[in-house]
């Protein structure tokens, strides 16, 4: 198990094979994926294949990470950075079990990822996108000091585009 970073309450680590269980259940909760543009996994095998074939760490040196509670090692969800080669940009993403919404875990882990992206990876800019209707996700971006840049349509949904710049470069 490779821990990437820690916060006061959380640690973020690379995915491991047993995370497929969590990915399957996260993506099969209609409320969790309502504002993501993703569909549910059709089977546990599909979730296993996703984890097994997740290659962001090798390809880019970073990716999405499992978010776990330090006190209990409980898997809460995931958060992390993803490089889009076509757009030449890195975005912040997060997804948590519904029972953990409203506890500050998304903001805490997102802030840690931003700090890691700027201080360790030396990224110049990180973007965040959300459906406009996903007020909680937009609030996380704003709490992390992302600045609104534009509105756009994604998957036939009104969406917003935010970014944060690395001022130390």
Describe this structure in words.
30% of the residues lie in helices and 33% in strands. With 169 residues, the protein is an alpha+beta fold. It has a single domain, classed as Gcn5-related N-acetyltransferase (GNAT) (Aminopeptidase, 3-Layer(aba) Sandwich). The strands form two sheets. It has a five-stranded antiparallel β-sheet, sandwiched between helices. A three-stranded antiparallel β-sheet has the order 6-8-7.
Give the gist of this structure.
The protein is of the alpha+beta class. The protein has one domain (3-125): 3-Layer(aba) Sandwich (Aminopeptidase).
Strand order of the largest sheet: 1-2-3-4-5
The CATH topology comes to Aminopeptidase
Helix content bin: 25-40%
Going by CATH, what is the homologous superfamily?
A: Gcn5-related N-acetyltransferase (GNAT)
Shape: globular
Topology:
Layout: E1 3-6, E2 10-13, H1 19-26, H2 30-33, H3 44-52, H4 56-60, E3 64-69, E4 75-84, E5 89-96, H5 105-119, E6 125-131, H6 135-143, E7 147-154, E8 157-165
Keywords:
single chain, 169 residues, Aminopeptidase, five-stranded antiparallel sheet, globular
